[in-house]
TrEMBL record:
CDD domains, per database record: Prolidase
Top enzyme category: hydrolase
Coiled coil spans: none
Swiss-Prot/TrEMBL cofactor(s): Mn(2+)
Organism: Dyadobacter koreensis
Name of protein: Xaa-Pro aminopeptidase
N-terminal signal peptide: 1-20
Keyword annotations of the record: Aminopeptidase, Hydrolase, Manganese, Metal-binding, Protease, Signal
Keyword Signal: yes
Keyword match Heme: no
Aminopeptidase P N-terminal domain boundaries: 29-166
Length: 536
């Protein structure tokens, strides 16, 4: 990719603008959806408060090439806007501008720049963002001039994007917006947004006050490992807590704070954990695409294939069916590679007769699936592989039986772990129930949506939540059990919509039973017979 001086770009702009627009998808979330989410948030905000939602910064990939930009899911959720260098302010109460015009939202967006747009694509700019349902829209470079004195509000609710670099100097960049926001909010210099989100969230979990020594030790460990935590005033106070009376006084002090990133976390968790009908349509599409792609991978797999080749088959189906991205780096682990929970190298060149664990999910219009299937490269489970696989299947079936509104995440975790532990003890792989985390080290369920590990409160299931159900067993090489079990890794993961009196498995189109997996693997794939030789 060559760098061409921007002065040359202007020569092409008029011609490019005259090109006919090609068809694009039409099933994006509506502006009414985004307005509804802002209205729902405003109902939660306390009196005389403001909440700030920042765009993620861009990130450099190599030299003068950036990573493909991925919007802050919160900003997208509340606005539909997907560009960098922006910040949305949402006010609880009506404000007045300099012309005495009312507003309860201010949106500062990336400035249009025809020369840059020639290279990196169209920017919406002020007028197009107004058409998205906003009355008061300004260029980001005018943030300091148009934003009011935020320190006058009783509550200033915000979350700074992680890894904001102080080396970024463009006047319309996220770093500059954060710097101006801190000034306008009279935010103390030592107020670390990331640390304070963590520590102030204690107020959302009063049960932590029942174990003060455990709480203080947790933050002492963090302080020992991080200067960021060690130098924080509130962290020091938590570490020195003597009893629940002091803890309650500290919680009161934090609750009275004008600056409150913990409320940002609470409000976005509460809203995003429940999916609206519009969101469900996109989630169904993302998950169905993923399930169909897993089917194609099962059909295509052969002992001589590489992990990377199998990944390509699955992701081709994603693109074929309209998914823009994967929701997370694809995991394709053959044999012992599958025992690495987030294995993403995918560089084994020959699958042999191993089982392949594929944890691959499509992202469609921002919404991510998270589906895992495990299947034998030669199409047939060995006796040992099937025994382990069937225990995981049994655990998943047991969890499905309790998936309904009112079930707790703790009940889900216990149900899955009990089945797996009992199964491994029965096979002699575990000596007793005390080893229950040895070959099943992760949890069974998490929220799913705009993030693959989506926002939500891990208490009780509520109707229209979408969660994963993903028990697994992983037995690395050289484990303390019979050698015949070494290198076997199984995870079966499905995406589940919670209902009042039950659930719906949204990824049901990809087979789960071992017999059905073998039947799918016996079918022909579109790549059968495809041969492409590398020219030497």
């Amino acid at each position: 990719m060559k760098k061409i001086p921007l002065s040359f770009a202007a020569l092409f702009i008029a011609a490019v603008n005259c090109l006919a627009q090609l068809p694009v998808p039409t099933d994006y979330l509506s502006k009414d959806f985004h307005k509804g989410r802002r209205d729902a948030l405003r109902q939660m905000l306390p009196a005389n408060s403001v909440m700030a939602i920042f765009a993620f910064p861009t990130r450099n990939f190599s030299n003068d090439v950036d990573y493909k930009y991925h919007a802050n899911p919160d900003l997208y959720y509340f606005s539909g806007y997907t560009e960098p260098s922006s910040v949305l302010l949402i006010f609880k109460d009506i404000q007045k501008d300099s012309a005495n015009q009312p507003y309860n939202e201010l949106f500062f967006v990336q400035k249009k720049n025809p020369q840059r747009e020639q290279w990196t694509g169209k920017r919406l700019g002020i007028e197009d963002v107004k058409a998205m349902g906003f009355s008061h829209v300004y260029n980001a470079e005018d943030f300091e001039r148009h934003v009011p004195n935020l320190s006058k509000f009783n509550k200033i609710i915000f979350e700074f994007p992680k890894e904001i670099s102080d080396k970024i100097t463009q006047t319309d960049d996220t770093y500059d917006l954060v710097k101006i926001f801190r000034k306008k909010s009279s935010l103390p210099e030592d107020f670390d947004g990331e640390v304070m989100t963590d520590i102030m969230s204690i107020s959302q979990f009063p049960m932590l006050l029942n174990s003060i020594p455990r709480l203080t030790q947790y933050y002492k460990n963090l302080a020992d490992e991080s200067e960021q935590y060690k130098n924080n005033t509130f962290i020091k106070k938590v570490i020195n807590l003597k009893d629940s009376t002091e803890a309650k006084a500290l919680l009161k002090e934090m609750d009275d704070s004008k600056w409150d990133p913990a409320l940002y976390s609470l409000y976005t968790n509460k809203l995003r954990q429940i999916k609206t009908p519009e969101e469900l349509k996109l989630m169904r599409k993302s998950i169905t695409i993923s399930a169909l792609a897993h089917n194609e991978a099962m059909k295509a797999v052969r002992p001589g294939m590489s992990e990377l080749e199998l990944q390509g088959v699955q992701e081709f189906i994603h693109k074929k069916l309209g998914a823009e991205y994967v929701g997370y780096p694809s995991i394709v682990g053959a044999g012992a590679n599958g025992c690495v929970l987030h294995y993403i190298e995918n560089n084994a060149t020959n699958l042999g007769n191993k089982m392949v664990l594929m944890d691959v999910g499509a992202e469609y219009h921002g919404y991510s699936a998270d589906v895992t299937r495990t299947f034998p490269a030669n199409g047939k489970f060995t006796t040992e592989q099937k025994q382990i696989y069937d225990i995981v299947f049994e655990a998943q079936e047991a969890v499905f039986k309790i998936c309904r509104e009112g079930t707790t995440f703790q009940e889900i975790e216990k149900t899955a772990r009990d089945v797996i532990t009992n199964g491994l003890v029965r096979l002699g792989i575990l000596k007793d129930e005390k080893q229950n985390r040895l070959y099943y080290p992760h949890g069974c369920s998490h929220f799913l949506g705009l993030d693959v590990h989506d926002k939500g409160l891990y208490h009780k299931l509520i109707e229209n939540m979408i969660i994963t159900v993903e028990p697994g067993i992983y037995i690395p090489e050289n484990s303390d059990c019979d050698k015949k079990w070494w290198g076997i890794a199984v995870r079966i993961e499905d995406d589940v919509l919670i209902k009042k009196d039950g659930f719906e498995n949204l990824s049901v189109q990809a087979p789960r039973k071992s017999e059905e997996v073998e039947k799918m693997a016996a079918q022909k794939s579109f790549i059968d017979g495809l041969k492409i030789d590398l020219v030497k």
